[in-house]
Amino acid sequence: MEILVCARRVPDTSENEIELNCAGNDIKRDELVYSINEADNYAVEEALQIVARIGGNVTVVTVGSEDDEEVLRREMAMGASHGVLITDDAFSGSDGRGIATILKAFAQKGNYDLILTGVQAEDGAAQVGGMLAAMLDYPFASLVTSIEVLDGGKLKISREVEGGNKEMNEIDLPCVLSIQTGINEPRYVGMRGIRAVAAVPIPTFGASELGVDPDAVGEAGAKVKRVDYFVPALGKGAEILHGNREENIDRVLELVAAKGGLK
Amino acid sequence: MARIFAYIVHKVGVVDDTAAQLAAAVKKIDAAASPTAIVTGRGVDLDAACNSLCASYAEIWKISSEALAYPNAELVRQALVKVLPPGSILLVAHEHFGIDLAPGLSIKMNSAFVSDVIDISGLEGSYLDIVRQEFGGQVSAHVRCDISAGAVVTLRPGAFKAAESAPVAGIVVDKSTEVGVLTAGRRYLGTIVAEAGDVDITKHNVLVSIGRGIQEKENVAIAEELAEALGAAVSCSRPVVDAKWMEKSRQVGSSGKTVKPKVYLACGISGAFQHLAGIKGGPFLIAINKNPKAPIFQVADIGIVDDILEFLPELTDKVHEMHSVAAK
Fold it and tell me: What's the ipTM?
C-alpha cells in the first residue's frame, strides 16, 4: 500500500510555555523548541505498521520551509521511505484551504491508496484532512483510533466518539483519515537513526512544479486570517498558595477535609 | 445578510445541549437573524427532535432518510450541500460529528471554514470576527474570516451560553425530497461501548488526577499511593492514556469519563478544555503544576506552583502521619 502522511513541525507545548511577545500580537518565537506535531507522529507510526504488515511505502510530506526538514528526517529515521518538502514564498500565509489545495496537487502527482494526517496541530484547526478528502472526492474519517486492512480495497476503522466509545466504520480506499493520538506507541528515534538519514536528499516542490495557482493559496487566497494572539483577561482564577511546601501541604489537607473529601 | 443555519445533533429524539448554544451564537453573529435549524434522521425520533426545537428556532428543516438513521457525516454532508442555499452560514458543534462533517462541507460549499470557536465578536461588512484558542488553550487568537461566499463554523460546546429569549413558534419544513439518493464510501458498522475498567472513577468523592506532568509510567505509583492514603481514586488526562500509562477507563474528559467528585486534585494537568469538559458538578479543584501559566490555574479554586513528583510524595507522607496520630 502506498501511504502519504501529511505532517507538520510545530512549537512543542510539552517543552515550551507559550507566551505573548512584547508587542502582544504574536507568541514569543525566539527560543521555542519545535518538534513534529504529536498527532502527526502517531500517523506516521500507524502508516509504518500497516506497511510492515502488508507491504508498501510511506511518504511523509510537509508544507513549510527548510527548517521543517528536521521533522522529515526524524520521520525517515522512524522508517518512512521518502520525505518531501513543499515550499514556496507564495504559500506563506495560507489558510487551511490553501494548505489542502497544495497537498491535493502533490497527492495527485503520486498514486496513494491512503492519506493520513494528524487529527489536529497544536496551532491548527483539525481541518486539512477533511478538506483534502473533499477536494479529492475521497471518503474521509476523523479521530481514527484503529485501522485494519480488509480485502477488496477497504479498511475497517474505529473512531473516537463521546465517553470513550468507539464508532466502527468500513471505508473504501483511496481515502483520507485523520489520526487521533494514542492509536499506537510511536517508536523511539535516536540520534544514530537520524544521522543515518542525514545525507538522504529531500526533494522539494514549489508552486510551479505542483501546478498550483499562487493566487489561490498563500495570503492572497486565504479567507481566514489570524489577526493577533492575546491572553484573555482572567476571571477570578485560582487562589495561588505562596507558602512553603509544608505549609501548602497542610492547607491542601485542611481544604480536602473541609470539602468532604477525607475518609 | 446571508441566511444562518444551525445543524442540530440529536440522539433518540433528544437534541444535544448544544442546540440552544448554537441559537445563542447565531444572535452574536447578527442579533436580527432568525436562525434555521437543520435536523437529519428518520422516523419518530427525528420528529421528536424537530418538535423540541420549535421554541428556539423560527424554522426547522427536517431531512428524513433511511440512509441518515445514523449520522454518518459523509452522507449528512451530501444532504446539506443539496439543501443549503449558496452563501449560507452553517454552525455546528465542535465534537466528533462536527469535526467529521465541517471541513469537507466548507470545500463543497466553497465557503470559509473556522473551527472550535469560543466567542464571536461580530460582523464587519463581509468579515466575521471570532475568537479561538491555540496551543492547548495557552493563548487565544482573534481570527477574521471572509464570509462573502458563506461559512462553515464549528463552535466549542459550552462556550456559548444559551440565551434566555422569548419562545418563538417555529415551524417544521420537510426538505427530505430535495436530498435525493445518498451514497458514501464509508459505512457505519456499529458502536462499541467503552469498557468499565477496574476502578469506576465516576463514583469517587476525591480524585487524584494526573497529567503529562507525571512524566513516566513508573511515577503513576506516586499518585496511587496518595489516592490510597486519601481513600481516593486515580484518574488522568488524555496524554497519560495516549502514553499507555493508565487505562482509557481512567481518563476524564470529553472523550473519556464525566466525573462529579467533591474534590479534584489536578496534578501536572495543563487544563485543556477537552479535559475540563469531563469535570462536572463544580468540585473543589486544587491544581498543582510546575508551569505558573498553565490554563488549569484559571479554573482551579486553589493553585500550587510546584513539582508534583516532589509535592505528592510529601503530601502522602503527611496523610499517613495524620492517620497514625489519630490512631494513637
Answer: 0.94
